C-alpha cells in the first residue's frame, strides 16, 4: 500500500478486544483503499475476511511445515508514516535538551545571585518544571487522542514545541523562562500519543523494529540537542564574522539555538499536517459514519429533487398525493438503508463510542491490572536509570579523596560519545535481531538482571583504580586497563537500557485495549514525567548524603548504587507478575 502498511489495516479491523461484538462497526463499512486525502480517515483497504490480530499471530507463529516451525514474514513498515513519526520523535528531545549547555550562563545573565549553589537550584527549577507540566497534562492528551484522534494531538504538540522554544530563547528573567518551559510541557503530549500511533500501524512481526526506530530517533534528538545548544549559543561571540553586528542576537544571545530547534518542530508540523494519517480506529469509524451520513443526505436530496422535477400532473390533489407518496418512500428507503447500515457496521458502534467517554470520567479506570503493572515496571526502570545518569558524572569527576574516580571532563565526554554511538547501534540494529529470538518480556528481564549486576559492581571501580595504580607502573597501561573495566560495565548498562526502554514501551502498548490505548500511554507518560522531575534531585541528594564526612561502608559512595540496585532487583521480581501473553514475538 502507498500510505499505510498491511499491519495498519489489521489494527483497524482487529485491535478491538471485543472482536465478536464488532464494537467498532467496521465489518462491511471499511471497503476502500486508504490512499486518499491525508485528512480523510474514511478509506481502508478491503479484506476478504475478518480475523483478529491475535488469531493471525498465533496462526503464523504456531504453523509447522513437516515438523518445522515457520517464521512469519515481517510486514513492511509504512515508510511515510514512520518518517513523519520519526521527525516528531526527534524534535521533542531536541527541544527539551537544547538548553542544557547554556542554561547555567542564561541564569547568570539574569543576575539573580552570585552563589553557584543557588544558580544550580534555579537551573533545576527550569529543568523540572517541563516534566511537572507534562505530568499534569499527559493523561488528558491521551484521553483527547482516544476521543478525537492521534493526529490533532501530535500536531498540537509540534506547534507548541516550536512556539515555546522561541519563547524560551527570548527569556530575560527567570519567570519568563519558567513560563516558557511550563507551556512546552503543557502542550506536549507527543511521546505517549506517538507510542499509541506506532502500535496502531504495526503488528507483532514488525513492532520491535518500529519501536527500535522510535528509540533511535529519540536518542539522536538527545545527542543533537545539547550539541546544537552548545554550538549556537552566544553566536555574536562564537561567530563574530557572521553575527558580530547583529543587535538582536546581542540582546538575546540564546535565541539562535532555540530558533533552530523550533524550525525542526515546525517542519515536522507542516509535513504532519499534509501527510500524517489518522490511526485511531474509533476516530476512523466515526469519520466513516459521518461520510456515509453525508452521502445518504445527498442521495435523499437528489431523489426528492428528481421526484419533484418529473411530477407534471395538473391535478393538485394527485400531485400532493404523489409527492407525499414519494417522500414517504424516500423516508422508508432511508429508514431501511440506515437499518441495513447499522446491521452491516455493527450495532455496537455507538456503544463503542459511548463506553470510552464513560471510562474517561476517571482516566485510571481505563488502565487494566496488566497495564498498571507494566506502568509501574516502566516507572521503576525510569527512576533508577535517571538516578544512575544523574550521579554518573558526579562519581567520575569527583576527586578520589571525596569518593569519586578523579577523572577529567574530556575523558568523561569521550566515554559518553562512544556510549552514545553504541546505544544507537544497539537500538537500530541489535534489538530488532534479538526480538526474533526472544520476547519483549524476556529481554526486559535480561536488562534488569544486567542493571542489578552493574549497579552493585559500579562503586567498586574505586577499588579497581587503587589496585591498578598499585599493580601497574606504566601510566598508559594504567589508563587503558581502567578504561577497559569501566567501559565494559557501562556497555552492559547501556545495552540493558536499550532493551528495557524499547521492550517496556511495546509491553505497555500491548497491554492496552484499542479504545483506551491513548489513555494508557498518557498515564504512562505522566508517571515517567513525574519520575524525570524528581529522580535527578533525589539522586543528587543521596549522593551528597553518602559523601558526608565519617560515612563508612555501605553508607559511603556505595549507598546510592546499592539503593538503585535493590530497586532494579524488585523490578525484576515484579516482571514475573506480568502475563507472558502480552509479550511480542520471540520464544515465550
Automatic annotation (TrEMBL):
Every Major facilitator superfamily (MFS) profile domain range: 81-583
Localization terms from the record: Membrane
Keyword terms: Membrane, Transmembrane, Transmembrane helix, Transport
SUPFAM superfamilies in UniProt: MFS general substrate transporter
Family annotation (Pfam families): MFS_1
Protein name as catalogued: Major facilitator superfamily domain-containing protein
Polar residues composition bias: residue spans: 1-14, 28-40, 303-314
Residue intervals passing through the bilayer: 83-107, 119-141, 210-232, 252-276, 372-392, 438-458, 485-508, 559-578
Region (Disordered) location: 1-48, 294-317
Location (main, coarse): membrane
InterPro entries: MFS, MFS_dom, MFS_trans_sf, Tet-R_TetA/multi-R_MdtG-like
Membrane-protein topology: Multi-pass membrane protein
Origin superkingdom: Eukaryota
Keyword Membrane appears in the UniProt entry: yes
Amino acid at each position: 500500500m502507498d500510505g499505510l502498511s498491511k499491519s495498519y489495516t489489521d489494527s483497524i479491523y482487529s485491535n478491538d478486544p471485543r472482536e465478536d461484538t464488532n464494537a467498532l462497526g467496521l465489518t462491511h463499512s471499511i471497503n476502500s483503499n486508504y490512499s486518499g486525502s491525508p485528512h480523510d480517515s474514511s478509506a481502508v483497504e478491503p479484506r476478504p475476511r475478518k480475523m483478529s490480530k491475535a488469531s493471525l499471530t498465533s496462526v503464523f507463529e504456531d504453523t509447522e511445515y513437516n515438523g518445522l516451525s515457520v517464521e512469519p514474514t515481517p510486514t513492511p513498515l509504512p515508510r511515510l508514516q514512520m518518517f513523519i513519526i520519526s521527525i516528531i520523535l526527534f524534535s521533542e528531545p531536541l527541544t527539551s535538551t537544547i538548553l542544557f549547555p547554556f542554561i547555567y550562563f542564561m541564569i547568570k545573565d539574569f543576575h539573580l545571585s552570585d552563589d553557584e549553589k543557588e544558580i544550580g537550584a534555579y537551573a533545576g527549577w527550569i529543568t523540572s518544571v517541563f516534566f511537572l507540566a507534562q505530568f499534569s497534562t499527559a493523561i488528558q492528551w491521551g484521553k483527547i487522542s482516544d476521543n478525537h484522534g492521534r493526529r490533532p494531538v501530535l500536531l498540537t504538540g509540534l506547534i507548541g514545541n516550536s512556539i515555546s522554544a522561541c519563547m524560551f530563547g527570548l527569556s530575560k528573567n527567570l519567570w519568563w523562562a519558567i513560563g516558557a518551559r511550563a507551556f512546552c510541557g503543557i502542550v506536549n503530549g507527543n511521546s505517549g500519543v506517538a507510542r499509541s500511533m506506532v502500535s496502531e500501524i504495526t503488528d507483532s512481526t514488525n513492532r520491535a523494529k518500529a519501536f527500535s526506530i522510535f528509540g533511535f530517533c529519540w536518542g539522536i534528538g538527545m545527542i543533537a540537542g545539547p550539541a546544537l545548544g552548545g554550538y549556537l549559543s552566544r553566536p555574536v561571540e562564537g561567530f563574530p564574522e557572521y553575527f558580530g553586528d547583529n543587535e538582536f542576537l546581542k540582546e538575546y544571545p540564546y535565541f539562535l539555538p532555540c530558533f533552530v530547534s523550533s524550525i525542526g518542530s515546525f517542519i515536522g508540523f507542516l509535513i504532519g499536517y499534509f501527510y500524517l494519517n489518522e490511526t485511531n480506529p474509533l476516530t476512523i469509524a466515526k469519520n466513516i459514519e459521518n461520510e456515509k451520513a453525508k452521502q445518504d443526505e445527498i442521495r435523499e436530496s437528489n431523489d426528492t429533487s428528481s421526484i419533484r422535477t418529473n411530477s407534471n400532473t395538473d391535478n393538485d390533489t394527485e400531485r400532493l398525493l404523489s409527492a407525499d407518496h414519494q417522500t414517504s418512500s424516500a423516508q422508508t428507503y432511508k429508514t431501511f438503508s440506515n437499518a441495513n447500515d447499522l446491521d452491516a457496521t455493527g450495532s455496537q458502534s455507538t456503544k463503542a463510542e459511548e463506553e470510552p467517554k464513560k471510562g474517561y470520567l476517571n482516566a485510571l479506570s481505563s488502565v487494566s491490572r496488566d497495564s498498571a503493572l507494566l506502568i509501574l515496571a516502566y516507572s521503576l526502570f525510569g527512576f533508577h536509570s535517571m538516578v544512575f545518569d544523574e550521579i554518573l558524572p558526579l562519581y567520575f569527576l569527583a576527586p578520589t579523596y571525596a569518593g569519586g574516580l578523579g577523572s577529567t571532563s574530556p575523558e568523561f565526554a569521550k566515554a559518553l560519545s562512544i556510549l552514545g554511538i553504541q546505544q544507537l547501534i544497539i537500538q537500530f540494529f541489535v534489538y530488532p535481531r534479538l526480538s526474533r529470538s526472544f520476547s519483549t518480556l524476556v529481554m526486559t528481564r535480561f536488562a534488569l538482571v544486567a542493571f542489578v549486576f552493574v549497579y552493585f559492581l559500579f562503586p567498586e571501580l574505586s577499588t579497581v583504580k587503587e589496585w591498578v595504580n598499585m599493580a601497574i607502573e606504566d601510566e598508559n597501561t594504567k589508563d587503558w586497563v581502567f578504561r577497559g573495566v569501566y567501559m565494559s560495565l557501562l556497555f552492559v548498562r547501556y545495552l540493558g537500557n536499550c532493551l528495557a526502554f524499547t521492550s517496556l514501551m511495546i509491553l505497555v502498548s500491548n497491554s492496552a485495549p484499542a479504545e483506551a490505548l491513548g489513555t494508557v500511554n498518557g498515564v504512562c507518560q505522566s508517571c515517567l514525567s513525574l519520575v524525570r522531575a524528581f529522580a535527578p534531585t533525589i539522586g543528587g541528594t543521596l549522593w551528597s548524603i553518602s559523601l558526608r564526612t565519617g560515612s563508612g561502608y555501605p553508607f559511603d559512595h556505595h549507598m546510592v548504587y546499592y539503593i538503585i540496585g535493590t530497586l532494579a532487583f524488585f523490578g525484576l521480581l515484579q516482571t514475573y507478575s506480568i502475563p507472558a501473553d502480552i509479550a511480542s514475538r520471540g520464544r515465550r
